[in-house]
Sequence to fold (305 residues):
Amino acid sequence: MNRDPHLPLTETVYYVLMAVIEPAHGYLIMSRVAAMSAGQVHLAPGTLYGALENLVRQAMIVRVPSEDPRRKVYQITERGSHVLAMDAERMKHMVHILEHRNEGGDEQ
Amino acid sequence: MKKLKFFLNFDHEEAWLNRLAQAGSLISAPGPVYRFSPIEPGTAVVRVDYRPAMSEADFTDYRTLFADAGWLHQAGTRRGGAQYFASFAGEPNADIFSDAGSRAERYRRSIAASSLLLLPFLVLVFILWTQGNLFPAQGYLTPGLWQKQGLDLVGALLFETPFVLLRFAGPCILLAFCVALVIAIGAQSQLLRKASR
Fold:
């Protein structure tokens, strides 16, 4: 079965997608990512700006109307949600096989 | 204060701007004729981004994102090109990029802009070349010039050369411009490859 070409997602993309499940503008995305990753992933503005452009181009996020004329607001799309879910499945599998490597099954 | 300088390497440009900022001069207008305004020495860190042209609204959104993150826009316009930001938070290693990949993408955008600029001029150069109007050697019009001998030839050449140079000055400048752009694109492609490794 062919894997979605977007997988595996980078850490940055995974967290940005998570950060826009609820609509958010740039700086809010940065704050949410820092909080969710417990300080592990720090997004600088130049990097984030490029990432947002790419995700819009790939139709994984979309711009939504915002009350603040100075800040664009983004939200995840159906496609983005789907890709996020698939990547989570991928990682769940990887964690599972590591944690259960000594149980039953064939020894290779 | 004004300084004239050309950079193809963004890291070198940042290093130069930061040395000046450490010494008390903060960039206020982009190059090649950079302008600076005085600041408290050692308080600012300068970083460079490169962006294509954007609408007024997009440009505001762009600068606001950086401002929210503590980076104040110092120089550069929405017409595109290098954009200069300064942080006053006292962190000497502060950067507007948090990974090498996005840092390297600046070169890709700069190459795209240079290539777009180069295209029409390249077409022009090609047309001039096929018309025989590009290289001065093609343009000596004195009848029977190349059949002359010795002093006669030298004299005739000396006489016509100023006129030829005048007529070909334009195309020569155009050609030099195209060559400069091609060199710039080549150099930045190398830098992009190195920075992306």
